[in-house]
Amino acid sequence: MHPLGSGVTASDPRRDYQDPTVVASYEHERFRSPWGRVYAAMHRRGIRKALLHLEGQGTVLDVPCGTGRIAPLVTGLGLSYLGLDISTAMVSHCREHHGSRSGVVGLSVGDIERLPFEDASVDAVVCLKLLHLITVPNIALVLRECERVAARYIIFDIARHDRWTPLVRWFKRCYSPVKVRPYALSREEWTRLIEDADLDLEQRRHVMWPISESVILTCSKRTSACAPEPYPVRGAKRTISRQTTASTR
Ligand SMILES: C[S@@+](CC[C@H](N)C(=O)[O-])C[C@H]1O[C@@H](n2cnc3c(N)ncnc32)[C@H](O)[C@@H]1O
């Protein structure tokens, strides 16, 4: 059984997704069950709302891009899509399925901890389904690197630990075919990580509260030269941490 086969916890996300058989079954295993479809739709909805802030202009770096499942969403909003992943097999799959899509401007293999891009060279960095697989020192590295490359926004999802977490884990054990056990951090730990990366939390959006641990966070650069407008999304959840400085407003 492969490391990411049913019933097994992720061990090394840099290595686990290199296997073409894992890549081939990636979307099917996660997002094709009834639960997976609902989750994927709600997750996509949250990402879409976060991306609306770019108002249909700019370039989005999706890292790790995996199979490129959000490429249609990004390009459908009129944005340019750049994908990067450490897994050659994932990038090949992404290229095969989305490489010729209008709006896809680059797909490459690389490490999120050392992004091969200039400072502030993309409008937004989207980092999905990675941070719950890595440890706190690595999360700190990743957030700093995303902050360096993004000119405006960093959008990422996390598994957040709160009082519902044990219930959610039980529910997932019963219904989800994917048994990757996430690292879930508390709100305080996330607040510290975000502040340490010089980011301001603009918005948090639970994907399926309270039956999923996933929360989508949208952060802006604290030192951004182009000050973002206040978040324009209808029905936005309340902000949990916001440190506004003169340079960002
Ligand atoms: C659970 S998948 C998520 C893929 C995609 N973001 C999604 O939402 O479907 C985790 C991905 O992270 C990639 N990955 C792991 N470590 C990485 C790193 N250091 N740099 C870039 N990609 C990495 C893996 O190759 C894999 O494609």
Distance between the termini: 52 Å
Query: In the CATH scheme, what's the topology name?
Result: Rossmann fold
- Major β-sheet annotation: 7 strands, mixed
Note poorly predicted spans: 1-10, 227-249
Helix content bin: 25-40%
Summarize the structure.
With 249 residues, the chain is of the alpha/beta class.
What does this structure look like?
- It is a single chain.
- By secondary structure, the chain is an alpha/beta fold.
- It has one domain (23-221): Rossmann fold (3-Layer(aba) Sandwich).
- It has helices at residues 13-16, 20-31, 34-51, 71-76, 88-98, 136-149, 165-175, 187-196; strands at 59-62, 80-85, 104-109, 122-127, 150-159, 199-206, 214-221.
- A seven-stranded mixed sheet has the order 3-2-1-4-5-7-6, with helices on both faces.
- Strand 2 (80-85), helix 5 and strand 3 (104-109) form a beta-alpha-beta unit.
- It is globular.
- Mean pLDDT is 83; it is low at 1-10 and 227-249.
- The site of S-adenosylmethionine has 17 residues, from helix 1.
Strand and helix map with partners:
Layout: H1 13-16, H2 20-31, H3 34-51, E1 59-62, H4 71-76, E2 80-85, H5 88-98, E3 104-109, E4 122-127, H6 136-149, E5 150-159, H7 165-175, H8 187-196, E6 199-206, E7 214-221
Parallel strand pairs: 1-2, 1-4, 2-3, 4-5
Antiparallel strand pairs: 5-7, 6-7
The structure holds S-adenosylmethionine.
S-adenosylmethionine (SAM) binds near residues 64, 113 and 128.
